[in-house]
Specification:
Elements: E1 3-10, H1 14-25, E2 31-34, H2 43-46, H3 78-91, E3 98-99, E4 106-110, E5 115-119, E6 125-132, E7 155-157, E8 171-175, H4 179-191, E9 194-198, E10 205-206, H5 215-223, H6 225-247, H7 250-267, H8 271-276, E11 289-290, H9 294-298, E12 303-306, E13 310-313, E14 319-321, E15 326-327, E16 331-334, E17 349-350, H10 357-360, E18 379-381, H11 394-412, E19 421-422, H12 424-438, H13 442-445, E20 453-454, E21 457-458, H14 466-474, E22 481-482
Parallel strand pairs: 1-2, 1-6, 2-3, 4-17, 6-18, 7-16, 8-9, 8-16, 9-12, 10-11
Antiparallel strand pairs: 4-5, 5-6, 13-14, 14-15, 19-22, 20-21
Amino acid sequence: MTEHVEVAVVGAGFAGLGMAIALRRAGRSSFVILERAASVGGTWRDNTYPGVACDVPSHLYGFATHPNPGWSARYAAGAEIHRYLEDVAATEDLGDRLRLQTPLLSAQWDAAASRWTLDTGRGPLTADALVLACGRLTEPSIPDIPGLEKFDGPIFHSARWDHGADLAGRRIAVVGTGASAVQLMPRLAETTAQVTLFQRTPAWIVPRDERAYDDAERERFATHPEELAALRAALYVEGEARFASRSGDAAASAAARQVALDHLAAQVPDARLRAALTPQYSFGCKRVLLSDDFYPAVASPAVTLEPSALAAVDDDGALVAASGTRHRADALVLATGFVSQRQPYAELVTGEQGLTLAEHWSDGMTSFASTVVAGFPNLFVLDGPNASLGHNSSVLMLEEQAAYAVRALAQRAQAPGGVLRVDPQAEAAYTAEIDRAARTTPWLTGGCRNWYVDRGRLTLLWPGTVDAFRARLARADGTEFTTIPATAGGDERRSS
């Protein structure tokens, strides 16, 4: 017998749980959450490398409906965030809605029945609406390095950490200097014989100013929720203020750049090493990183900085840098990021024109409201096109998207056949808005390669503040949906 639900949510990380919370608050109970792994948590379940932590303040990196007075520090460790998400799922009593170890294998729009047919390998499932809450940092990006198979030692990605590999006292090579590398490399330097760090491009790094919350603070947050709410509000304002420096405001960018340069100068006394660690692109062009211990580790005898990319592994297993320098290592850690611009789930979803989401996004991801996509009725994508941030908490964006999806689902009852079809013109106009806002930002003009841009377009980041995103979604009044299928021909009429 085929199970049918009103809403099927794919993914049980922040996005999926946020969608479940929104559905619960709207009084909707007919939904399931499909999760390919054995527990909730998303990226915070998968990333278990040494030093893994959030770079957004803890009290802003959580759901507004589930404040946590017990965060141990200003920036929570990965395992603590994972436990928080497990606690949220338990508090929301999602056990009967969760389908763990149930991956989405395919999703097909059934035009005759006006619903989605899903294949999970666990029996047929249909849903009136489909929410893709799969995240953007889920599939590791493995670089194409000639001769990699010749390396005689453990090789693993930072997001698939091999805890069985004995790294103590060994020579370790780390490829990459992004957020994960900046966190894990100092921890490796404490326990291994030597770390060789392959740096293709240095990052702008500002102080983290980490500190633990003491028992008295946590107790005060628990007994005085108004203080916790005030702290969250203050952190939100601080985050919004950072947008100016990340997006190219001249004065704000110059001030933030100087903070980063002063931080580098204070922690790296050697002028040659300092020069190798100084970016030559605009502040904000790539993700700005936070660390108090990366530079001291690089400057220590425990670490050798190779200021070029890993280019090859030669016949006797040596690591060859783009500079031509050869290095020896006993293990290789690939901190090389994720397949973020071309989401793997897009290959699995087929819309009403017979095209996959990947085909629709063949020139880069597009949407309306960063959430709904033309040609894919009753589909919502969280944390997808232009929904990421470089200055504030991404959870804030997810909550706004989930709220928009719930409002749209309420409109579905008045839509012909209960089907919400995005007007292609609305998607095109929204995409044009994004392109105009992004045109002069450092993400496109700052002289770097970043994972925000795909085929010349800003496809990952929202080019504005959270306030602006909230206001933009509030202006979506339902006229983004048409009243007739695209296959019916003729001019598409807007619904009211």
